[in-house]
Amino acid sequence: MTQLELAREGTISPQMEAVALKEGLEAEFIRQGIVAGTIVIPANIKHANLTPCGIGQGLRTKVNANIGTSSDFGNIDTELEKLRVATDAGTDSVMDLSTGGDISAIRRAIIASSSLPIGTVPIYQAGIEAVERHGAIIKITPDEMFSVIEEHARDGVDFLTVHCGVTQSAIARLKEQGRVADVVSRGGAFLIGWILYNEAENPLFEQYDRLLEIARDYDLTLSLGDGMRPGCLADATDRPQVEELLVAGELVDRARRAGVQVMVEGPGHLPLDHIEANVKLEKAICKGAPFYVLGPLVTDTAAGYDHITGAIGGAIAAAAGADFLCYVTPAEHLSLPDPEDVRQGVIATRIAAHAADIAKGVKGAEDWDKRMSVARKKLDWEEQAKLSLDPQQSHQVHLRHASSGTACSMCGQFCAMALVEKYLGISATRC
Amino acid sequence: MTQLELAREGTISPQMEAVALKEGLEAEFIRQGIVAGTIVIPANIKHANLTPCGIGQGLRTKVNANIGTSSDFGNIDTELEKLRVATDAGTDSVMDLSTGGDISAIRRAIIASSSLPIGTVPIYQAGIEAVERHGAIIKITPDEMFSVIEEHARDGVDFLTVHCGVTQSAIARLKEQGRVADVVSRGGAFLIGWILYNEAENPLFEQYDRLLEIARDYDLTLSLGDGMRPGCLADATDRPQVEELLVAGELVDRARRAGVQVMVEGPGHLPLDHIEANVKLEKAICKGAPFYVLGPLVTDTAAGYDHITGAIGGAIAAAAGADFLCYVTPAEHLSLPDPEDVRQGVIATRIAAHAADIAKGVKGAEDWDKRMSVARKKLDWEEQAKLSLDPQQSHQVHLRHASSGTACSMCGQFCAMALVEKYLGISATRC
Predict the structure, then answer these.
(1) Are A311 and B308 inside 8 Å of each other by CB?
(2) What is the pLDDT of residue A430?
(3) Cβ distance B219 to B247 under 8 Å?
(4) Distance, in angstroms, between B375 CA and closest chain A CA?
């Protein structure tokens, strides 16, 4: 039985218990969220060493790190290094988006090495194998697509991005729209090519029940991909994007009926003032399904710094209700990320998630900042480093320049907190 | 005559012309904004080589970089290097917050080397000279305070932070409040000490007319400092902070009556969901005076990455109407910033400002992103680098990993934009 089926029959599973413990919440709250479909626990029954992680309303906002090879760089060790770096930096999950080298071997190595939930986009591998087998992505057969999906399920992947909403009607809306950047989703691009070439409906949509069956068998959480997500601010919140979201809403209903856990993916590139509307729209259309956003990036112009652009958008999205933030690294739009890019991406996105958690009133979020502030006021540098989101970095930057006193080298003897402490403390009897 | 006085009598000054040209707006719009007090042009008549810069409603959100020595590090060359780095990274103004070394010499060197508007906080120098002269900051005389202010004015400082709102009643509210971090403003701390020790009112408040006279003589723009700004999220939007804002509102009225340009400073540390309220409050209380915020930082826990924390808060603040963002560097709370921290701080804050400008509908903001997106869709890497906020970084990250095709090394041959271009382009006749 899936977590959703267990929750429905009133069972609190060990996974629900573990999530409740980590979040400091009642297990019954988790169970009810799963029943309502507002919480998912991606936990493939084949992922043996998994530490369960809950995603959804009322829980800490989660962070995902994308790793994986490309057709230009296929080294498995580099990807395992990125997995380690992302884990150490505090990511909540990892997606393996490999499109180069021995894709199956890389995925299996990542799953075996990680207790974090792992996600994949099987259409990538399916498309690449189609190139090898038939000479073109678009010549893949529906059976071949599903065979790759089954392979990922068997390997223990916890959540799958499936672009079921890239339908013929979404493509018609895309053509009518006239976009600046057309489509920037790789999975979306593969399927658009397939649909146009074969003059047939998207197999992931047409045979959605087949997908649900596999998902149910392994308790795979479906993540309904946004193949039509805007690839630039000028294309944000347009008709193809919303068309796909409407389909996603219907597919959420069907997944829930089938006992399959489901979440929904979202943009992408959005002007800052579109973000809240996008979150509210998803929550309304998809009946509270967890919303998993990529960034969103609030400008197209910050190439080389898109972890910051994504942190701005992610914080606003999560504060408005987004549940799961996919990181963006400084290398986005430019290059395959290095391990250091991965680290920067995770940290920036954790800042965004935590800032949002304070605004959302997530349990314990505000308290962390208060403890940090008490340590800061005391000029207790050891405690400050310990309470920092990245203790090592905090420690290193502090020690970069020696200070002559107990304050840091920025204010030295003129530290406001130290001065005011002194003045207020003795103001009754005069300074 | 000050820019405000000129504007009132219907004159469009060369400074207003220059600002209008840079912003792509009518000079009459700038003049009217100055009359209304919603726009300021900090331009000390003694700052000979100044390129005027407008700050306020309807204009591009501006970015300030703080540099300056501390009691631990007093090297003038390092600060001039930071000035160069900040200018190259695209800051709109620089504040010299020096508290170590030969403070007057450093300030003069910075003003002489910069065509950007320069700001200072004269109470720092006044306090430090009081330590040298009398053995304690709190023993400074009001005349000594004003003498330093006059010196800064004569040197050509364009805008002055003056903590006039740190009054006896604000201190009473501070004591009643019971804060976690008390006061983190250095100027605020100096003045609180002075007020408590001397059992007298803040000279910058009590002799505000004297301050206005100096400001009017040099067309110094006053920046009403927030000595009571919250130093942590737990203290945000509390009674001492709002008390000081109420006083600032009254002082804005008086400055305008005296023909003096004025803006108002704001937090600091704010939970994400407090930011918009803080901006609206300032705009209402201070009758639309330009709002100059520090960050705001949306969590206390990200020491070592506060440029990102500040970019999140700054983007939200500016989108809500804040006009001027003071950067925060990665070294904030830990150490005096190095030139590389300065660069990171400026870039992060420029991202925030630009993201907000798109949301606010500032002229030309959206168009920049669109041009970038067109270049991205064309896979025109040279044009993308040119249009990037930091062209050099964009170029370098792109070249870090060679790609086998025209796309970057992240997606390689499976670049969505290239694939969809092909599929959509030939879909009429089949792929």
Answers:
(1) yes
(2) 43
(3) no
(4) 9
Q: DSSP for A56-92, please give it.
A: ETTSPPEEEEEE---SS---HHHHHHHHHHHHHTT-S
Which amino acid is located at B324 in the chain? F
Structure tokens at B341: 């921290």
Q: Which residues of B touch A338 (CB under 8 A)?
A: 400
Give the confidence band of A426 by pLDDT, cuts at 50, 70, 90: low
Contact: B373, A124; criterion CB under 8 Å? no
Among A273, A311, A373, the residue with its CB nearest the CB of B232 is A373
Give the least confident one: A399-403, B248-252, B356-360.
A399-403
CA A56, CA A58: separation in Å to the nearest integer?
6
- The Cα A52–Cα B122 span in angstroms is 56
Report residue B43 as tokens.
């331009």
* Under 8 Å between Cβ of B161 and B120: yes
Q: B335 vs A182: CB contact, 8 Å cut-off? A: no
On chain A, the residues whose CB falls within 8 A of the CB of B333 are 376, 384, 408, 410
DSSP annotation string for A1-30:
--HHHHHHTT---HHHHHHHHHHTS-HHHH
Quote the Cα angle for B407-A231-A55, to 5°: 110
Distance CA B136, CA B427 (A): 80
CA A332 to chain centre: 15
Q: Which residue has 């989108």 as its token pair?
A: B319
Determine what percent of chain B is predicted with pLDDT higher than 90. Answer: 91
**B406 pLDDT above the threshold of 90:** no
Cβ atoms A82, A345 nearer than 8 A: no
Alpha-carbon distance of A266 to A230, in angstroms, equals 9
Which DSSP category does A46 fall into? Answer: T
Model confidence pLDDT, tens digit, residues A77-107: 999 999 999 999 999 999 999 999 999 999 9
> Using CA atoms, how far apart are residues B258 and B369, in angstroms rounded to an integer?
42
B303 vs A183: CB contact, 8 Å cut-off? no
**Phi, psi (5° rounding) for residue B119?**
-115, 155
Band of pLDDT at residue B295, cut at 50, 70 and 90 = very high
Amino acid at A315: A
Q: Which structural domains are found in chain B, ordered by start?
A: 3-360 (3.20.20.540), 365-430 (no CATH)
**Mean pLDDT estimate for chain B:** 95
With beta carbons less than 8 A apart as the criterion, state whether A218 and A267 touch. no
How far, rounded to the nearest angstrom, does the alpha carbon of residue A220 sit from its chain's CA centroid? 16
Interchain contact, A319 vs B393, CB within 8 Å: no
A139, A119, A143, A142: which is closest to A130 by C-alpha?
Answer: A139
d(CA B342, CA B89): 9
A146 contacts A212 by C-beta, under 8 angstroms? no
Computed from CA positions of residues A315, A317, A319, A321, in that sequence, does the dihedral angle turn out positive or negative?
A: negative
Within chain A, what is the greatest distance between any pair of CA atoms?
88
Pairs of residues, one from chain A and one from chain B, whose beta carbons lie less than 8 Å apart: 420
Task: Kindly tell me the sign of the dihedral angle through the C-alpha atoms of A164, A168, A173, A176.
Answer: positive
